[in-house]
């Protein structure tokens, strides 16, 4: 009779045994590349054609789309997981910046371009589940994908906040600077806007893409605790998300629970951490920042 521990050995956890297999089986990458290329053209048009992307927003959107296209065209075909992640993040930033500045042409093109990216990811997940469905403990693989999707969503969601602070242009920056001055920060408000944007961007990279995910989750948890206790006031307005006078602590607690979970376990195989671990490129002394070695030694 097989022991439960031996059954768990077949489940890929901290990293995939073969990243060449962790990829879509049906959805071609060419559609994603074409969509990203079209979005880059739309960014150029909105920045220097109809000027709906102002000042720095035009440059940031264009440069981020160049990164997304480069990754999708040159890295994704070689190794899907890191290539997809490194094209998804800059694409989401550019899309968010376009939406904040009412660059409708780019928003619509990006909305269409998002479809093949989403289908690629779904195809990758389903392909991985099909490969593992007859293995002992296969349901743990399904559970891992559930937590991966939650981690990616809540991590990459921070791009919405970081983009408005440091990528969306001077208009949005000064608007937020004025808002931060309302917290009594005075002349240093601008520095806090930039600092907040950088921390949120780091959170998206670390938690959303899974790069030193445990460290990033810890920093994110502390950041939201400080921001909401010291400035936001959510903890004094009751529980409900839509409490009078501003949101309560419902959503803040949700974020902190997710970040705490990532801090305990790490990101899993669909992450930059997992890919670096499998390649042997992560120094041993830094591995504890990526995944829980004590509980992860029987996985991957």
UniProtKB/TrEMBL annotation:
Q: Where in the cell is it found?
A: Cell membrane
User: Sorted alphabetically, which keywords does the UniProt record give?
Assistant: Cell membrane, Membrane, Transmembrane, Transmembrane helix
**Organism from which the protein derives:** Pseudomonas putida (Arthrobacter siderocapsulatus)
Q: Which family does it belong to?
A: Belongs to the DoxX family.
**What InterPro entries is this protein classified in?**
DoxX, DoxX-like_oxidoreductase
Q: Which domain of life is it from?
A: Bacteria
The keyword Transmembrane helix appears for this protein: yes
Bilayer topology term = Multi-pass membrane protein
- Could you give one GO CC term from the UniProt record? plasma membrane
Tell whether Cell membrane is among the UniProt keywords.
yes
Name the UniProt record assigns to this protein? DoxX family protein
Stored Pfam families: DoxX
Q: Spell out where the chain crosses the membrane.
A: 31-50, 56-75, 80-99, 105-126, 211-231, 251-277
């Amino acid at each position: 009779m097989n022991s439960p521990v031996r059954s768990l050995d077949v489940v890929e956890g901290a990293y995939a045994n073969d990243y060449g297999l962790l990829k879509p089986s049906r959805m071609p990458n060419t559609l994603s590349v074409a969509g990203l290329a079209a979005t880059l053209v739309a960014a150029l048009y909105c920045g220097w054609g109809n000027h709906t992307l102002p000042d720095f927003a035009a440059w940031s959107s264009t440069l981020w789309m160049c990164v997304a296209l480069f990754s999708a065209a040159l890295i994704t075909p070689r190794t899907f997981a890191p290539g997809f992640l490194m094209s998804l993040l800059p694409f989401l930033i550019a899309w968010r910046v376009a939406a904040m500045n009412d660059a409708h042409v780019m928003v619509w093109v990006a909305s269409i371009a998002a479809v093949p990216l989403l289908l690629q990811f779904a195809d990758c997940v389903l392909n991985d589940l099909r490969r593992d469905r007859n293995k002992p403990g296969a349901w743990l693989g399904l559970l891992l994908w559930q937590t991966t999707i939650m981690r990616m969503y809540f991590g990459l969601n921070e791009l919405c906040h970081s983009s408005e602070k440091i990528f969306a242009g001077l208009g949005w920056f000064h608007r937020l600077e004025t808002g931060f001055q309302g917290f009594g920060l005075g002349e240093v408000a601008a520095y806090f806007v930039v600092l907040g944007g950088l921390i949120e961007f780091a959170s998206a990279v670390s938690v959303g893409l899974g790069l030193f995910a445990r460290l990033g989750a810890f920093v994110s948890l502390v950041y939201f605790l400080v921001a909401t206790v010291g400035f936001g006031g959510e903890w004094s307005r009751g529980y409900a998300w839509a409490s009078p006078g501003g949101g309560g602590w419902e959503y803040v607690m949700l974020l902190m629970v997710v970040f705490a979970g990532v801090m305990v376990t790490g990101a899993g195989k669909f992450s930059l951490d997992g890919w670096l671990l499998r390649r042997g490129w992560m120094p041993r002394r830094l591995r504890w920042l990526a995944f829980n070695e004590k509980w992860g030694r029987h996985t991957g």
